[in-house]
Amino acid sequence: MQSIQLGPFTFATSLFAFMVAALLGLFLAAWLDRRKQTRAESVLWRAIILGVVIGRLGFLIQQWNFYQSEPLSWLDLRDGGLMIPAAVTAGWFYVLWRVLRDKAVLPAAAGGLAVGVAAFSLIMVVTGKGQAEPTQPLPEIDLIPMQAQFRAPESLDQYQGKVTVVNLWASWCPPCRREMPAFKQVQSSRSDVNIVFANQGEELDVIQKYLNEENLDLGNMWRDPQMKLGQAVRSRGLPTTLFLDEQGRLVDVRAGELSAATLNDKINKLK
């Protein structure tokens, strides 16, 4: 399962697992604090905040070209742009430092961390995200080109030979609309990858009206009227982005909004 739907909100499975794990760990730490008169909950809170700040700063430095012109985007964590190793290292070292200074917080802090790690691992295993999956080809799915309404449907096989990114989107989806400029920026700046758009379930005139209103001139625009691509990867929400290797095999799926920086980072990791 690549994403989890809660009412109108869609979360990437890993992000949902992290939020649940953090809440459970903090709850247990707070309960143990009350029994032992310690302050482990505040230690874990600060470790999480420090980890997010350090991870974000590391990612900003790594992808500075995409952030330097928009300072406000530095604070927008919705794109998931974090340097995870730096974030985890900073959080663990902060907890270790606080425990060495005040050993009384060790039981509650250790209990909170243990519950958090166990909850995260359990959710990832239950949803299938904790299992390493081999690359696999997508099923044969016909897509209808936007450029010529009456041409015969084609498939994604034509893009083999380069890393290919397929964005599943719809004009009624606010996050899809927000991330379109980012995909346009990467499409215009990287000729070494294919950036492909597959509209999910909308009529041609609706799509064309949106593209004209937003002045979006995008290549590789397709329609997926029956939303078969989303069904193939078991995605329950939009936007969803598929990452294919040079042989056309599915190697990663991202549920949720991407910025130009996070999109560029994921492409670099694939290449």
UniProtKB/TrEMBL annotation:
GO biological process, one term: cytochrome complex assembly
TM region positions: 6-31, 43-61, 81-97, 104-126
Main location: other
Signal sequence range: none
Domain Thioredoxin: from-to ranges: 132-271
Keywords noted in UniProt: Cytochrome c-type biogenesis, Membrane, Redox-active center, Transmembrane, Transmembrane helix
Entry's localization field: Cell envelope
PROSITE patterns: THIOREDOXIN_1, THIOREDOXIN_2
A GO term, aspect molecular function: phosphatidylglycerol-prolipoprotein diacylglyceryl transferase activity
One of the record's GO cellular component terms: cell envelope
Source organism, top-level taxon: Bacteria
Pfam families membership: LGT, Redoxin
Keyword Calcium annotated: no
Name of the protein in question: Thiol:disulfide interchange protein
Organism: Alcaligenes pakistanensis
